[in-house]
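Fold it.
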Amino acid sequence: MKPEADYRVDATEARAFGRVAVLMGGDSAERSISLKSGTAVVNALQQAGVDAEAVDVQGKDLLRVAAENRYDRCFIALHGRGGEDGTAQAILDQAGIPYTGSGVLASALAMDKLRTKYVFAGAGLPTPAFRMMTDASQAEAILASLRSPLGVKPAREGSSIGIYKVTDAAELRDAYQKACEHDPLVLVEEWVSGGEYTVSILGDDTLPVIGLSTEHTFYDFEAKYLSDDTNYLLPSGLSSAEEDYLKELSLEAFRVLDARHWGRVDIMQDADGGFWLLEVNTIPGMTDHSLVPMAAEAVGIGFQELAVRILRESLEVPS
């Protein structure tokens, strides 16, 4: 990220924020990314004049930590299970501590990609055809009901962990077994080959659409966080009408899950130009490879200001 002009809150807002715990780390498969996100956020908030401190929740009783330290609010930078799935949100609700991001219901729904797709389908939103897979013996039946190639993914993991592209029954059975190592609930959906796009949401508004291009089979964990050869298209390369449509679609997907404050919506475009919702991320990454800071920077919102604006949303949540 480029250096930004110093962004600071005034004394009144600093008092309104009070003591802020930036929750990070945890025990999920995304722990390493969460630590990077959380460290970047706590540094940005401190530089902006907020009384913020890092809290690695790994192996800790969050309710007890919150009560003993008397935090006034929390910035949740926890990715994956235990932080992004409604668990931390439920604990903070019980403690009466405001926090950034979506509440319990939206967090739990968005973390579960299978049930997210049920909601999208029920609301009439475009999402690739899919099936739930609970046993390797279902491979032939699933291939008969969906168009190959297929994407196989653990339903409740993030950062593209455990995702595989398959074309036949043997590959599907093997991918299912591997995905089960992360989650016994496995989602199988039709693979959309084409452009990949992401729309970041901040408050009630969308940030610029980003197009993604990678030499990998798809925008996987390495492409997201480790590779330096991923291409981020900003402008996205879409027409203004297409960008407007993606922004409206993303806001609708965000709202139908009852998400709030901030997040990111991932979308694919097929060879015929149609757009398909993949998922909603309620606590996206905040690392130097992350898409929300990139989209914010494109409209002049530096990282410090972005962190403060996300935190500011928690002032609207009743304690």
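Residues 11-101+300-307 form a domain with the Rossmann fold fold (CATH 3.40.50.20).
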